[in-house]
Specification:
2 copies of one chain form a homodimer.
Chain A (H helix, E strand, L loop, with lengths): L7 H14 L4 H8 L6 H7 L5 H13 L3 E6 L5 E6 L1 H4 L2 H19 L2
Antiparallel strand pairs in A: 1-2
GO molecular function, one term (chains A, B): DNA binding
Keywords (chains A, B): DNA-binding, Transcription, Transcription regulation
Organism (chains A, B): Sinomicrobium weinanense
Chain lengths: 112, 112
Amino acid sequence: MLSKGGCPKTMLSIRDALETLEGKWKLLILFSLSEGPKRFKQISRDVPGITDKTLSKELKRLETHQLILREVFNTFPPTVQYSITAHGMSLEKLLDELHYWGLLHRKEIIGK
Amino acid sequence: MLSKGGCPKTMLSIRDALETLEGKWKLLILFSLSEGPKRFKQISRDVPGITDKTLSKELKRLETHQLILREVFNTFPPTVQYSITAHGMSLEKLLDELHYWGLLHRKEIIGK
C-alpha cells in the first residue's frame, strides 16, 4: 500500500483515524476493554500512568466515537460499567500491528 | 489477538509503539516519504495543516527513531533531502490498517 505513498485520499483517511485515536491512551483503554466489560477502577489499573481525570475524559471521547458503551445499573449505589462496541472491536488488526511494531521497534532501537 | 486483551506485556508493546508514533503528524510524514526521498517544502505540501516549525521538530524525532534519514548534498547552496529507512517502511502494515480503519470509521460515524 505504501507504494501509493503521498496519495491525498489515503492521507485523508489516515488522518481521520489518527485524529479519532489521537493521544497515547485511547487505544490502551480499548485494549483493556477488549478483555470484557469493566468498571472505572479496573480500567485505571490496567492502563499504567493514566490519571482518573484523563481516563474519564478519554472514556467520554471513546463513547462519542461509538467505540465504547457506558451502562449504568440500577443498584444501590448505582454501578457504571464500560464495554467495547463492535465498532471498537474493528480496531483489532490495528492493535495487532501496533503490538508487533512495538516489539520490532524495541528490538531495532534497544536491541532486545 | 484482542482475545489476549489486557495482557500487560502486550499493553507495554502497544504503548511503546504509541509513544514513538505519538501525535498526528509522524505517520503522515512517513506516508509522504514512502513515495520517495523528498525535500522539506515537498513534505510540507503533502501534509496539510503542518507548520514549518512542527515539521522540523517531527523530522528530528523521526530521525532519532531511525525511521527517516536526513542527507545534505554538497551543492551551492547545500540541499537537504529526507528519505524513509527500511525500519520506517516496516510501518507499512500499520499505515494500511489506519487507512482502512479511517475509511470504516468515516462510514460508521458520518455514513459516507
